[in-house]
Each structure stands twice: as C-alpha cells, then as structure tokens.
Amino acid sequence: MRQCLVIDDSRVIRTIASSIFKSLECSVCEAETGIEGLDFCRVHMPDVILLDMQMPSMSSVEFLRSLRRSPGGQHPYVILATVENDVLRLTEVLSAGADEYVMKPFDRAALEAKLVRTTRAANSASALA
Questions:
Q1: Which of 14, 59, 84, 88 gets the highest tally of CB atoms within 10 A of its CB?
Q2: Are 81 and 102 contacting, i.e. CB atoms less than 8 angstroms apart?
Q3: Which CATH number goes with the domain that contains 27?
Q4: What are the backbone dihedrals phi and psi of residue 78, each rounded to the nearest 5 degrees, phi first?
Q5: Is the pTM of this model over 0.85?
Q6: How crowded is residue 39: how many other Cβ atoms within 10 Å of its Cβ?
Q7: CA dihedral 91, 19, 69, 118 (to 10 degrees)
Q8: How many domains does the chain have?
Q9: Is residue 128 assigned to a domain?
Q10: 83 close to 40: Cβ distance less than 8 angstroms
Q11: What one-character-per-residue DSSP string does 59-85 give?
C-alpha cells in the first residue's frame, strides 16, 4: 500500500484529497504546512506527496529543496496541486523537485492518473537498477 502525504493549508482540500487517495487504496497522512510536512518526512518518508503550490510559512520551492536534500528525499513522487497556470512559476517549482502537477479543483480521475504515473516511474527506476 502506498503512503501518501497531503500538504495543503486548506482543510477542505486535505479532506477531499485524503478521501480520494483512500479510495485508491493508499494510506494517507495530512499536514497543514510545509514545515509539518518536512517533520513528517523526517520520521516516515512517504511514497507520494500532494503539495499545495501556495503555502503559508514555507513556499513550495523551499519545501521541495529541503525535501530533496533530506535522507530519502529523492524517493517521494511529488505532485504539485495548483490553481496557477503561470508557466514560469510552474517551471520554477518543477525545477525545484516536483515531478508533475495537477490543477485544482482536481477529482478522483486526475489523482488516479497521477498515481498510475508514479507506478510507471517506480517500475522504470527499478528496471534501471
């Protein structure tokens, strides 16, 4: 069972995303801020992180740079959740370490498609090892 971490300052978004991931047979934890998310990752690195692009107290870029420098921090597949469609901003966050993004509001089909990609990416990585 994949472990998913949902990081978003909106309780509504966290609840919706958690419900969707659970329906896709994932174990889910939630964090309200990037700092809480990093604290969680230090104890138990998840397989997938759904990361809000606009967070208080720590930007998504700061979170990603810290995550990717952490032991095991290259492992999680990070999906950025955003309402922004500014190509330069999206490119900045993807360059900082996000694997891809999903537009808000997302639904089960959108997150399921992203999880299929995480499985393909993991299978490709293990085939190369």
A1: 14
A2: yes
A3: 3.40.50.2300
A4: -105, 120
A5: yes
A6: 11
A7: -70
A8: 1
A9: no
A10: no
A11: -HHHHHHHHHHSTTTTSSEEEEEES--
